[in-house]
Design goal:
The protein has 147 residues and is an alpha+beta fold. It has a single domain, classed as Aminopeptidase (3-Layer(aba) Sandwich), CATH 3.40.630.30. Helix content is 32%, strand content 26%. It has 4 helices and 5 strands, in the order βααβββαβα. The chain has a 5-stranded mixed beta sheet, sandwiched between helices. The chain is globular. The chain starts with a strand and ends in a 19-residue tail after the last helix.
C-alpha cells in the first residue's frame, strides 16, 4: 500500500479521497469538503490517502497537530476510514502507522481520536492498535442565532 499526503487544491482530494471519506462522513459534498479543508488547513488539518496496489484509494485519514495544556502536543485524528471493500486487510494499521510517524516527527506526546459510541467494530480495531479509552467526549449542538 502507498500512502500520500494531499494538499489543498490537489485534485485527488475529490476524485480519490472524498469517495472513501464519505463512507464515514456521508454529508460531505465536494463543495462542503473543499470549504472545510480550505478553512481547516489554516488550523493544521491535513489529509492522507491510502492506495492499494492497483491504484485505487482504499483509505483516508484527516489529522492535525494540536498543542494543548493537557497533552502539550498531540496528533489528533479527525477522520480515519478504510473502504468497506478493503477492511481487515491491514490498510487501517498502515494508516495508523503513517499518522504515528507524523506525530513522532513533530514531537507529539500522544496520538488521539474520537470514535462514535455505536462504532463497536472501530473500537475493537483501535484497541487492537493499542489505543486506550481515556475520556468521554461530550458535545452540545448549537443552533444558529436568529437575528
Amino acid at each position: 500500500m502507498k500512502i500520500i499526503d494531499l494538499g489543498v487544491g490537489d485534485p485527488r482530494l475529490d476524485t480519490d479521497l472524498l469517495p472513501v471519506l464519505r463512507e464515514l462522513r456521508p454529508h460531505l459534498t465536494e463543495e462542503l469538503f473543499r470549504q472545510v479543508y480550505e478553512r481547516g488547513h489554516a488550523q493544521g488539518l491535513r489529509f492522507s490517502a491510502g492506495y492499494a496496489d492497483d491504484g485505487t484509494c482504499v483509505a483516508a485519514a484527516g489529522w492535525r497537530i494540536v498543542d494543548t495544556t493537557s497533552t502539550v502536543r498531540k496528533l489528533y485524528v479527525d477522520d480515519l476510514v478504510t473502504s468497506a471493500s478493503a477492511r481487515s486487510t491491514g490498510v487501517g494499521h498502515a494508516m495508523i502507522a503513517h499518522v504515528e510517524e507524523h506525530a513522532r516527527a513533530e514531537g507529539c506526546h500522544e496520538l488521539s481520536l474520537d470514535s462514535a459510541t455505536y462504532r463497536t467494530g472501530a473500537h475493537r480495531f483501535y484497541l487492537r492498535e493499542r489505543f486506550d479509552i481515556v475520556a468521554f467526549h461530550f458535545a452540545k449542538e448549537l443552533k444558529p442565532l436568529e437575528g
